[in-house]
Every structure is written in structure tokens, then in C-alpha cells.
Amino acid sequence: MAQISPLGKYLIGLEIRWHRSRQINAIYRSLKLVFPVILLGSLADFFDSAWLQKTGYYYQTLDVGHWSWPLKVLRAYFRLVSAGTLGFAAILLAFAVSFYLVASVTPHTTDRLIAGMTAVISLKFFNVDRSSVLALKPVQWLSTNLGIQGVCIGILMGLLVGNGYRWWLQRESTVEENLPRTLTITSGWLLLMAALGLLWISTQTVGLNVAFASIVRWPFKLPHFIMGLLGFSTLSSLLQWMGALGPLTAGSGQTIETAQNLAAVLTHSGWQLPHPVTLHTIVTVYTTMGGTGMALALLLAIFLSKPDALQRRVGWLSALPTLGNLNTPLLVGLPVIFSPILAVPFLLAPLTCTLISWACVRLQLVPAVAYPLANGTPGPLIAYLGTGGSWSALILAIINLGISTAIYYPFVKWFQLARRGE
Amino acid sequence: MRSKRTFRSFWLILGAIFLLCLPGFIWRPHQEAHVRANYRSMFAPVFLVPGSSATQNRFNALVKELNKESGTKHSLLRVEVMTDGTLKYSGTVRQDDMRPYIVVGFENRHDGTENIENQAKWFGIAFRALQKTYGFNHFSAMGHSNGGLVLTLFMEDELAATHVHADRLLTIASPFNLEEQNPTVNTPLFNRLRANRKHLPKQLVVYSIAGSKTYTGDGIVPFDSVNRGKYIFQKQVKSFTQMTVTGANANHANLPENQQIVSLIQQYLL
């Protein structure tokens, strides 16, 4: 343990200082709080997408359609579970962050709870149906994009409201619970946020979270040459690290190129693709094992590095979703989100894999993927099935996974040291 | 002791990965057949075929209207098939647009049985070229007047060979018995369409809309001629629905701009 490189020492120090800051501490505690909910939702999501949907890996390979399962009821049930858990992630985090920020300055539970509630209401002020408000009709709330993709916005709202509330409380601190004071602060904040919300909807056409989601999807427009691929990989890792979780691609990333590739394979003999290098054939296939950031490699690195009991538990609990390429529980549970140490491999591992895979496809050492990818396919198998059973693609995937695990390993070690050092 | 336990976790997770990969390895030999049978491309164009004497620009206003109503802007590609089988393109398909409109018009756009049959063949040429370019394997289509006949002929004669699935077909005032006023007379084209009806795709959903200006037709096409669609589609396709539209703009030429029909297209075709 004495042999820590200067970079490691620096990062460990940064992580400890970072973790001690009041803001980050509140975020970490909130992530810990919502972890069970996120885990449950991810499991439901995994089961729904991989086992019950026709595009699911287990559905296809195990022929679930012919089992006598009440598929329709199960699909509806798991979707409901997922919508009720992952679908509210942003709201839960806004509440929790605001709650924990206020918790350190007031002993009164009422104040803490009200700070949380104010954050939730404020978040909703920015996610309201524009036309219903402006046309003076009954107000309709928007509930899309309040899920895991909106976690970042939820956290920001929690920080904004929590800090404001804390500042006000500190100005008027009294030992006793004080109804008029609570009333003043709460109504002050709510009225202010409602005004800001109205300003937002009268100037913007979509809700705050929808606007954010469209920014998040922007990298898709990047061109498909190597710099574009690397840029996309960096941006998607960065966004996930900041809490814009969940899959970025709508509809498994199909584009016209994907359709043309598949058509070429289905109509001609041999494996000649018109577009061997695309976001889909390189980034989706070779760098998202376990989800964005090669989360499966992170999981392997955790188990390789003598984790403490808590991390081992988080690892095991997140194992199933991670094997189905849903990285959310692992990102929230450790957490990877906002962790300076883990940010480095979270960016580096996919970048390295992108470079290696791009070179291999470019040099025609491996065929490019053309078959549609089933949801929940275990990471290393994606390339093998996508290429219709190419062993070289499988080997490349395993090499990528190995290299990524090696990249993660030292950082996971330092992350554990930082945790122990706190 | 502790390190042994740690590595046990690592090997366990590797074992789990391998175990979950097994169904994939076992299933792999069936993959190609599965993909061929079940795969539907995200890219699924909507073909629009104008009636006789109308050009490939016939639906510009309609597409504008549809884009306005639905809120999502789909791109519009116009293809003109020349009599020698060459294609002239105008407009583009946006890179991220999975449901573009593709209007197919013909250099020879005259009425008449022989012309309509030729137009169906020209449509086939355009269809194959577009399919090769965009790699789609399913589509929907709308035909106004004789355009509906062109599409029906194409689906009976050529579609099966392309291995492309037709999802929905909407015909607007398509005269399956041409402009024949006498309901007891069968035109040769009608007989042909009826004889080949078994070749229509079984999964196709068909809507036939008739315009009614007078009580017997839309001013050009007799109601009976549109009504004859049932002899072609009924019991051959997944479902067949007939609708009659009356009111303003219910005469033959104005039907594609009729607000009721715009909403029917919105509701049933898109």
C-alpha cells in the first residue's frame, strides 16, 4: 500500500477533499438513499427488456414466447415498477439533496422535510405543460424525462433550493420550531421558483428536463470518423458521470446506415458492409459492455481489488443489471457519479476500446456488426452475435474487456483507499 | 483467507458471464433465420403515389399539412420514373428521419389500363432502387385515384419477390373498376386485380376512402368503382376498412387536401 504513484496520491487527496465538501456530501448521501429504488427499477427494466420484449436477448435465445408466461401482464407490471422507480429518480434526488443540505444546519425535521418538498415542487414548476398554463386551462404537469436521464437536473434543483433554504435558515436561526419562519421561507422560495418557472415556460417551448434531454442526445449528430467516434464516446461518458443516466440511444441506435448494412448482409452472400465504421458498429458494440463507460470492466475490477463489505455488496447487487448492460445501479451505488477518481477510467476505458476496435475494423481484422443487437446481451457476446458468429469479434470484445478492467483496476484501488481515508 | 474470498467473487462473476452467454452460443445457428423473419428496419418510408396526370409534386401541400399537424417534420423525397426506367430525384431524406415520405410520379402519367399497368412496373423499378439505397424492409403506402391501383398492382405482382413487408395501404378514391358507370360491367383491370388477389400480403392493413360529392360518386369516380375494393381485399389481407367522406372538398381532385382525409391519413397510415 506504500507504493502509490503521485497521480494516485493526488486523486485520493482530491476525492477526500471533494467528499468532505458539504455539497458533494449531500449528493453522495442522496445517491446512497435512492440506491435501493434505482436497483429495483433497473432489475424490473432488465427483466422487461431482456426477458419479456421480443427484442430481448433471453426472449430470443431461450424462446420465452413459447413458455406459458402471461407475457402481457408481466410486461405491464414490470413497466409500471420501472416507471414508479426509475421514472421518479430526478424527483427523489431533488428532494434528498435539498433535505441533506438543510439537515446540517437545523435540528428540526420539519424544516428538512419542507426543504425537500420545496425542491420537488420547484422541479415541477419547470416541467409543466406550457400551453395549459399560458392558455389559462387546468394546469397539466409533465412527467417525462424526470427519470434517470434527469438525475442531473434533479440534483441541481436540490442544490439550488437546499442552499437557498439553508442560507435563509442561518439568517433567522432560532432554537425552537417556528411556524411563521418556516412559512416565510417556504412561501418565499415557492413564489420565487414559480416566477422563474413561468419565465421559463413563457420563453421556452419545452420543459426543462426535455430541453436537457435534447442537449444530451446532441452528440449523435457527430460524424462517423474516428474523431467523431472518440468525441461521442467522451461526451456520453461525461454526461453519464454528471448524472444524465440511462441509454442515450433511442431505438437501439438504428440509423439508415445500420439498415443498409443489414440489408447488404441479408441480400448478398459474404459479409461486405457499405458502412463498416459507424457509432453503432464501433462505440455501441465494443465500448458499452455493462452500459456506458464499460461498467462491466468496473465490476470486474471491483471484485479483483479486495473490496470492503459495502462495495462488494453494491457490486453483487448491481451484477445482474450490469450483465444486461444497465449501468445505473453501479453508477449510483458506488457512486461513480461525481467521483473524481473514477471519472478518469470511466472516460479512458471506452476511449481506448474505441481506438482499438476502430483500428481492428478498419484493418479488416474483424468484420463489422450488421445484425440487430438484442437488448440485454451480455457485453462480450454483443460483437459475436452482431457479426453472425465471428470468433475474431468475440476475441476483440474479450481483449477490450480485459484492457478496460486493467485500466479500472488502479483507480478502483485508489477509490477504496480514499474511502478508507475519510 | 480474505484474498481467497475476493477472488472467488471475481471467478463467480466471470462464471456468470459465461453462463449467460451460453444461450447465445446455442442459439447462434438459428440467428440468420430469426433475423430474416422478425427484423423490421427502423427506417420505414411512406410511399405516396399520385393519380393520373398529377406529377410527383402533387403531394407537396399534403406533406406540409401532415408535418404541421403531427408536429414532427418528416422529409420528402420525390422520384420521377421516366418511360425508359431511369429515375429523377428531387428533395432529400434527412439522415435521422426514419419515416420519410417518398412520392413516386411517372413521366407517362396518362390514364388508361395499359398506362396504369406500365406505371405499376415503373413503380417497381423505383421501389427496388430505393430499397437498395435505404435498406428498409417494411413500408406503408398511400395512393390517390389511379395511384391506389398502381400500388395494388405492385403488391400483387412484384412485392413478394422483394422480400419487403407492406404494413398499411390507404387508397383515396381509387377506381378499382375504373370509371365504369355501369355496376354490372367488369373492366379487364378489375378482373385482373381480383384474379391475383391471393398474392396480396396477408399482414397488410388496408383502408379505402371514397369521396361523395353526389350520391353516386365524387364527380369523376363512381362510388361503385371504389366500393369494388372489397372484392379484392376482403378476406385476403389482415383487415380492410372502407370509409366515405362527404362535405366540402369531397370532389375527386380535392380529396388529398380534404381536412377529414388529412386526419384519416394521420390516424391510420402514420
TrEMBL record, chain A:
The chain crosses the membrane at residues 26-47, 76-103, 146-168, 188-212, 224-242, 283-304, 316-337, 391-411. Residues 7-411 form the PTS EIIC type-3 domain. Keywords: Cell membrane, Membrane, Sugar transport, Transmembrane, Transmembrane helix, Transport. Signal peptide: none annotated. Pfam families: PTS_EIIC. It is a multi-pass membrane protein. This is Permease IIC component. It is found in: Cell membrane. It comes from Levilactobacillus fujinensis. InterPro entries: PTS_EIIC (IPR003352), PTS_EIIC_3 (IPR004501), PTS_IIC_cello (IPR004796), PTS_Sugar-EIIC/EIIB (IPR051088). Its main location: membrane. The phosphoenolpyruvate-dependent sugar phosphotransferase system (PTS), a major carbohydrate active -transport system, catalyzes the phosphorylation of incoming sugar substrates concomitant with their translocation across the cell membrane.
From TrEMBL, chain B:
Pfam families: DUF915. InterPro entries: AB_hydrolase_fold, DUF915_hydro-like. The keyword Ion transport does not apply. One of its GO terms (molecular function) is hydrolase activity. It comes from Levilactobacillus fujinensis. This is Alpha/beta hydrolase. It comes from the Bacteria. Keywords: Hydrolase. Signal peptide: none annotated. The keyword Hydrolase applies.
